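Dear Dr. L.,

I hope this message finds you well. Following up on our conversation about the binding site, I have prepared a predicted three-dimensional model of the protein together with zinc ion. For your records, I am including the exact sequence and ligand specification that went into the calculation, followed by the C-alpha coordinates. Please feel free to forward this to your student if that is useful.
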Amino acid sequence: MIVVIVGADGRKWTKPQEIKARNLIYHILGSFKYSKEKIIGDVSFLPNGEVDARLELVEYDSLTIVTSRDPVGEEKYYCLDCLDYISDMRIEAHQINNSGGIIKVHSDGGISTWVEITTATLGINQKIFSPLCTDPDRLGYTLKQCKNYRGYHQWENHFKPRSIKMAEFGLLEKEPYILYNIVPAKSCRWCDGTGWDLKKRQEEGPFSFPRCKKCGGDGAYSDGTYTYNHAKKLNREVIKIVID
Ligand SMILES: [Zn+2]
Ligand SMILES: [Zn+2]
Ligand SMILES: [Zn+2]
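The resulting structure of the complex is given below.
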Protein backbone atom coordinates (compact mmCIF):
# COMPACT_ATOMS: atom_id res chain seq x y z
CA MET A 1 0.00 0.00 0.00
CA ILE A 2 1.32 3.39 -0.95
CA VAL A 3 0.12 6.35 1.08
CA VAL A 4 1.10 9.75 -0.27
CA ILE A 5 0.63 12.84 1.85
CA VAL A 6 1.11 16.26 0.30
CA GLY A 7 -0.02 19.72 1.32
CA ALA A 8 0.90 23.24 2.24
CA ASP A 9 4.34 24.23 3.53
CA GLY A 10 4.91 25.57 7.04
CA ARG A 11 4.41 29.26 6.27
CA LYS A 12 0.73 28.79 5.38
CA TRP A 13 -0.53 27.46 8.72
CA THR A 14 -1.72 29.21 11.87
CA LYS A 15 -0.78 27.49 15.14
CA PRO A 16 -4.30 26.04 15.79
CA GLN A 17 -4.40 24.76 12.18
CA GLU A 18 -0.95 23.23 12.59
CA ILE A 19 -2.13 21.28 15.65
CA LYS A 20 -5.09 19.91 13.67
CA ALA A 21 -2.91 19.05 10.67
CA ARG A 22 -0.32 17.22 12.79
CA ASN A 23 -3.05 15.31 14.65
CA LEU A 24 -4.58 14.38 11.32
CA ILE A 25 -1.27 13.07 9.95
CA TYR A 26 -0.77 11.00 13.09
CA HIS A 27 -4.30 9.67 12.76
CA ILE A 28 -3.91 8.78 9.07
CA LEU A 29 -0.59 7.01 9.54
CA GLY A 30 -1.62 5.32 12.79
CA SER A 31 -4.82 3.99 11.20
CA PHE A 32 -2.84 2.40 8.38
CA LYS A 33 -0.22 0.96 10.68
CA TYR A 34 -2.30 -0.34 13.58
CA SER A 35 -5.76 -1.13 12.24
CA LYS A 36 -5.33 -1.35 8.45
CA GLU A 37 -7.96 1.31 8.01
CA LYS A 38 -8.04 4.45 5.94
CA ILE A 39 -9.74 7.78 6.43
CA ILE A 40 -12.23 8.23 3.60
CA GLY A 41 -12.84 11.99 3.71
CA ASP A 42 -15.46 13.39 6.11
CA VAL A 43 -12.96 14.65 8.64
CA SER A 44 -13.92 17.00 11.46
CA PHE A 45 -12.05 18.23 14.50
CA LEU A 46 -12.97 18.45 18.18
CA PRO A 47 -12.34 21.80 19.91
CA ASN A 48 -8.94 20.58 21.19
CA GLY A 49 -7.85 19.74 17.65
CA GLU A 50 -8.40 15.99 17.93
CA VAL A 51 -9.53 14.20 14.81
CA ASP A 52 -12.99 12.76 14.25
CA ALA A 53 -13.00 10.79 11.00
CA ARG A 54 -14.73 8.01 9.13
CA LEU A 55 -12.57 4.93 8.55
CA GLU A 56 -12.76 2.01 6.19
CA LEU A 57 -10.85 -1.29 6.22
CA VAL A 58 -8.18 -1.78 3.55
CA GLU A 59 -6.15 -4.79 2.46
CA TYR A 60 -2.45 -4.65 1.85
CA ASP A 61 0.77 -6.56 2.55
CA SER A 62 3.25 -3.73 2.98
CA LEU A 63 3.03 -0.05 3.75
CA THR A 64 5.11 2.78 2.29
CA ILE A 65 4.56 6.42 3.10
CA VAL A 66 5.53 8.87 0.39
CA THR A 67 6.40 12.45 1.12
CA SER A 68 8.09 15.32 -0.64
CA ARG A 69 10.67 16.99 1.65
CA ASP A 70 9.87 20.59 0.77
CA PRO A 71 13.07 22.58 1.25
CA VAL A 72 11.50 25.49 3.11
CA GLY A 73 13.20 27.04 6.15
CA GLU A 74 16.41 25.74 7.71
CA GLU A 75 17.57 22.15 7.96
CA LYS A 76 17.35 21.29 11.63
CA TYR A 77 17.83 18.26 13.84
CA TYR A 78 14.65 16.87 15.35
CA CYS A 79 14.61 14.39 18.23
CA LEU A 80 11.95 11.67 17.99
CA ASP A 81 12.20 11.14 21.75
CA CYS A 82 11.79 14.74 22.90
CA LEU A 83 9.50 15.51 19.93
CA ASP A 84 11.32 18.78 19.46
CA TYR A 85 14.06 20.48 17.47
CA ILE A 86 17.56 20.50 18.89
CA SER A 87 20.24 23.09 18.13
CA ASP A 88 23.44 22.09 16.31
CA MET A 89 25.40 22.93 19.45
CA ARG A 90 23.49 20.46 21.57
CA ILE A 91 23.46 17.67 19.03
CA GLU A 92 26.52 15.69 20.18
CA ALA A 93 25.66 15.71 23.87
CA HIS A 94 22.08 14.90 22.93
CA GLN A 95 23.01 11.87 20.85
CA ILE A 96 25.08 10.40 23.68
CA ASN A 97 22.37 10.87 26.31
CA ASN A 98 19.55 9.76 24.15
CA SER A 99 18.35 6.40 22.92
CA GLY A 100 15.80 7.72 20.45
CA GLY A 101 16.38 8.63 16.85
CA ILE A 102 17.42 12.01 15.58
CA ILE A 103 16.48 13.07 12.08
CA LYS A 104 17.22 16.14 10.01
CA VAL A 105 14.20 17.99 8.59
CA HIS A 106 13.30 21.35 7.10
CA SER A 107 11.87 23.57 9.81
CA ASP A 108 9.24 25.20 7.55
CA GLY A 109 8.39 22.23 5.33
CA GLY A 110 4.90 22.06 6.84
CA ILE A 111 3.01 18.93 5.83
CA SER A 112 6.08 17.23 4.33
CA THR A 113 8.14 17.79 7.51
CA TRP A 114 5.32 16.68 9.82
CA VAL A 115 4.84 13.53 7.72
CA GLU A 116 8.57 12.75 7.87
CA ILE A 117 8.60 13.16 11.65
CA THR A 118 5.41 11.16 12.26
CA THR A 119 6.43 8.35 9.90
CA ALA A 120 9.81 8.05 11.65
CA THR A 121 8.12 8.14 15.08
CA LEU A 122 5.77 5.31 14.12
CA GLY A 123 8.56 3.34 12.46
CA ILE A 124 6.88 2.99 9.06
CA ASN A 125 8.77 2.70 5.77
CA GLN A 126 9.04 5.98 3.98
CA LYS A 127 10.09 7.11 0.56
CA ILE A 128 11.07 10.73 0.25
CA PHE A 129 10.96 12.46 -3.11
CA SER A 130 13.34 15.41 -3.07
CA PRO A 131 13.04 17.87 -5.96
CA LEU A 132 16.33 16.97 -7.69
CA CYS A 133 17.18 18.44 -11.08
CA THR A 134 16.15 16.53 -14.23
CA ASP A 135 17.92 18.86 -16.70
CA PRO A 136 20.44 16.61 -18.55
CA ASP A 137 23.26 19.12 -17.91
CA ARG A 138 22.53 19.38 -14.19
CA LEU A 139 21.14 15.94 -13.47
CA GLY A 140 20.58 15.19 -9.78
CA TYR A 141 21.54 18.69 -8.59
CA THR A 142 19.71 19.95 -5.52
CA LEU A 143 17.72 23.19 -5.50
CA LYS A 144 20.60 24.80 -3.65
CA GLN A 145 23.05 23.76 -6.37
CA CYS A 146 20.64 25.20 -8.95
CA LYS A 147 20.06 28.41 -7.01
CA ASN A 148 21.09 30.56 -9.97
CA TYR A 149 18.36 28.99 -12.07
CA ARG A 150 15.14 30.12 -10.42
CA GLY A 151 11.51 30.43 -11.53
CA TYR A 152 10.64 28.40 -14.60
CA HIS A 153 13.73 26.16 -14.29
CA GLN A 154 12.78 25.18 -10.76
CA TRP A 155 9.24 24.30 -11.70
CA GLU A 156 10.04 22.54 -14.99
CA ASN A 157 13.14 20.62 -13.83
CA HIS A 158 12.63 20.13 -10.11
CA PHE A 159 9.06 20.43 -8.77
CA LYS A 160 6.99 19.29 -11.74
CA PRO A 161 8.90 16.03 -12.47
CA ARG A 162 9.02 15.29 -8.75
CA SER A 163 5.24 15.77 -8.46
CA ILE A 164 4.61 13.49 -11.43
CA LYS A 165 6.85 10.77 -9.96
CA MET A 166 4.91 10.90 -6.69
CA ALA A 167 1.58 10.69 -8.50
CA GLU A 168 2.77 7.75 -10.65
CA PHE A 169 4.67 5.85 -7.94
CA GLY A 170 3.69 2.15 -7.95
CA LEU A 171 1.30 2.64 -10.88
CA LEU A 172 2.86 -0.02 -13.17
CA GLU A 173 3.03 -2.49 -10.31
CA LYS A 174 -0.68 -1.78 -9.59
CA GLU A 175 0.08 -1.14 -5.91
CA PRO A 176 -2.92 0.00 -3.84
CA TYR A 177 -2.56 3.77 -3.55
CA ILE A 178 -4.14 6.68 -1.77
CA LEU A 179 -3.14 10.33 -1.72
CA TYR A 180 -4.11 12.87 0.92
CA ASN A 181 -3.77 16.57 0.18
CA ILE A 182 -3.95 18.58 3.40
CA VAL A 183 -4.54 22.28 2.95
CA PRO A 184 -5.46 25.24 5.17
CA ALA A 185 -8.77 26.98 4.42
CA LYS A 186 -8.72 30.21 2.37
CA SER A 187 -5.13 29.62 1.24
CA CYS A 188 -5.64 29.99 -2.52
CA ARG A 189 -3.71 33.06 -3.60
CA TRP A 190 -5.35 33.19 -7.05
CA CYS A 191 -8.84 33.79 -5.65
CA ASP A 192 -7.89 35.22 -2.23
CA GLY A 193 -9.53 32.16 -0.71
CA THR A 194 -12.99 33.06 -2.07
CA GLY A 195 -13.27 30.08 -4.44
CA TRP A 196 -14.36 32.34 -7.31
CA ASP A 197 -12.45 33.18 -10.47
CA LEU A 198 -12.17 36.87 -9.58
CA LYS A 199 -10.92 38.07 -12.96
CA LYS A 200 -13.70 36.33 -14.86
CA ARG A 201 -16.21 37.56 -12.32
CA GLN A 202 -15.11 41.13 -12.87
CA GLU A 203 -15.66 40.70 -16.60
CA GLU A 204 -19.01 38.96 -16.29
CA GLY A 205 -20.59 41.04 -13.52
CA PRO A 206 -21.84 40.52 -9.94
CA PHE A 207 -24.36 37.79 -10.81
CA SER A 208 -21.75 35.51 -12.25
CA PHE A 209 -19.96 33.05 -9.96
CA PRO A 210 -17.29 31.23 -12.00
CA ARG A 211 -15.25 28.79 -9.92
CA CYS A 212 -11.55 29.33 -9.36
CA LYS A 213 -9.76 26.74 -11.49
CA LYS A 214 -6.66 26.64 -9.27
CA CYS A 215 -8.34 25.46 -6.07
CA GLY A 216 -11.43 23.90 -7.65
CA GLY A 217 -13.75 26.37 -5.88
CA ASP A 218 -13.13 25.59 -2.23
CA GLY A 219 -10.61 28.42 -1.75
CA ALA A 220 -7.83 26.10 -0.51
CA TYR A 221 -4.69 25.57 -2.57
CA SER A 222 -1.18 24.31 -1.94
CA ASP A 223 1.85 23.23 -3.94
CA GLY A 224 0.69 19.64 -3.46
CA THR A 225 -2.23 20.38 -5.78
CA TYR A 226 -0.31 19.46 -8.93
CA THR A 227 0.47 16.00 -7.54
CA TYR A 228 -3.14 15.66 -6.38
CA ASN A 229 -4.55 16.61 -9.80
CA HIS A 230 -2.15 14.36 -11.67
CA ALA A 231 -2.97 11.33 -9.50
CA LYS A 232 -6.67 12.08 -9.92
CA LYS A 233 -6.27 12.12 -13.71
CA LEU A 234 -4.71 8.65 -13.44
CA ASN A 235 -7.87 7.49 -11.61
CA ARG A 236 -6.02 6.92 -8.38
CA GLU A 237 -7.74 7.49 -5.05
CA VAL A 238 -7.21 11.07 -3.86
CA ILE A 239 -8.68 12.90 -0.88
CA LYS A 240 -8.39 16.61 -0.19
CA ILE A 241 -8.86 17.69 3.41
CA VAL A 242 -9.33 21.39 4.11
CA ILE A 243 -8.54 22.56 7.63
CA ASP A 244 -10.26 25.63 9.12
ZN1 LIG B 1 15.77 14.20 22.63
ZN1 LIG C 1 18.11 22.48 -11.64
ZN1 LIG D 1 -8.83 29.53 -5.72
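In brief: Residues 133, 135, 138, 141, 146, 149, 153, 157-158 surround zinc ion (ligand 2) (CB under 6 Å).

With kind regards,
A. P.
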